[in-house]
From TrEMBL:
Annotated GO MF terms: metal ion binding; oxidoreductase activity
Keyword vocabulary terms for this entry: Iron, Metal-binding, Oxidoreductase
Family note: Belongs to the iron/ascorbate-dependent oxidoreductase family.
Highest taxon, organism lineage: Eukaryota
Lineage per the UniProt record: Eukaryota, Viridiplantae, Streptophyta, Embryophyta, Marchantiophyta
Protein name in the entry: Fe2OG dioxygenase domain-containing protein
Domain Fe2OG dioxygenase: 166-264
Leader sequence segment: none
Alphabetical list of PANTHER family matching this protein: 2-OXOGLUTARATE (2OG) AND FE(II)-DEPENDENT OXYGENASE SUPERFAMILY PROTEIN-RELATED
Keyword Metal-binding tagged: yes
Length: 315
């Protein structure tokens, strides 16, 4: 059964003024109760958002042979993936099945030489536009991480100090509209390996799990849907929840959803932060180097919560 309930909507317009404390508490409560919320007035220019969605749309409209130049190599998650045209090998079967959307996944920060070949060069403004968006979105992720800590009564940098040299990835999911098709696209239910994720949704199609029920998210125009990823569940010792969610096509329109993930660096060690263990609470998750976590996440496939469940040492 799927129900329509609204995930909390938080207006960041007053976040640098007198309302900040109240907003921080609302954000922390949303992270504890839902693992999801939406932000409006987040400061990212509407025109930049439109430009970035436009370059991705243009990319997906390129002929397959053009997109094939940026195809995901075996053993990697970087690049273009299509459920049938890119003929997934054994490794990639974890990620792509007959109902998976076509998607483009790239790491934009850090900019490593081994990832450059999968970064699209067409349309020609693509990389510059995405670069601009990545810096703006990074600012929103970092602002929210500060507000989340303040909302728990902690120092502003209690979470953020664990993100020296953070990473930013974008996965853009394209669900074409085909009037006759059923199952043109659906993402498997999964939790994100990130610390936080910002989702730009063009038309609704995301569902989140709440009390064993799928809840449809009505995306706000120009808003970002924000969710807690596995790294923040670990850092917060389970107070913030990295929730199962799945995306699907829209019944009547083409849908493009752009997920922007904020990550620790590969060498960062993730573990429940000391500030949340001061009152004698025991850590619920083992320490893990993020690079190792991510490797396990990729190997297991983005299905359900397999990787974070492996890190759990007690409830
Ligand atoms: O919006 C969607 O279709 C799902 C996006 C998502 O959860 C992801 O890319 O991680
Ligand atoms: Fe996701």
């Amino acid at each position: 059964m799927t129900v329509e309930l609204e995930i909390p909507v938080i207006d960041l317009a007053g976040s640098e003024g007198a309302e900040r404390e109240k907003l921080c508490k609302e954000i922390a409560r949303a992270c504890e109760q839902w693992g999801f919320f939406q932000v409006i007035n987040h400061g990212v220019d509407e025109s930049l958002r439109k430009r970035v969605l436009d370059v991705y749309t243009d990319f997906f409209y390129l002929p397959p042979e053009e997109k094939m130049k940026f195809v995901v190599p075996e053993g990697s998650m970087e690049g273009w993936m299509h459920p049938t045209l890119t003929e997934p090998s054994g490794f990639l079967k974890n990620f792509v099945g007959p109902h998976t959307p076509e998607f483009l996944n790239n790491t934009w920060l850090p900019d490593l030489p081994q990832h450059r070949q999968q970064k699209p060069t067409s349309p020609s403004s693509m990389q510059a536009t995405i670069g601009e968006f990545v810096m703006a979105a990074k600012g929103v992720h970092e602002k929210l991480l500060k507000m989340m800590a303040e909302g728990l009564g902690l120092e502003s940098d209690a979470f953020l100090k664990h993100f020296q040299n953070p990473g930013v990835k974008i996965r853009c999911n394209f669900y074409p509209f085909e009037a006759k098709g059923t199952n043109v696209g659906a993402n498997l239910a999964h939790s994100d390996a990130s610390a936080t994720t910002l989702l730009c949704d063009t038309v609704s199609g995301l569902e989140v799990m709440r009390d064993e029920t799928w809840v449809q998210v009505q995306s706000r125009p120009n808003g970002f849907i924000v969710n807690v990823g596995d790294q923040l569940e670990i850092l917060s010792n389970g107070r913030f929840k990295s929730i199962l969610h799945r995306g699907g096509r829209n019944e009547s329109k083409q849908r493009l959803s752009l997920a922007c993930f904020y990550f620790p660096s590969s060498d960062a060690v993730m573990a429940p932060i000391e500030e949340l263990l001061l009152d004698g609470q025991l850590p619920k998750y083992r320490k893990v180097r993020f690079g190792d976590y991510f490797q396990g996440f990729v190997a297991k496939g983005i299905e359900r919560k397999k990787q974070i469940e492996n890190m759990k040492i007690r409830d």
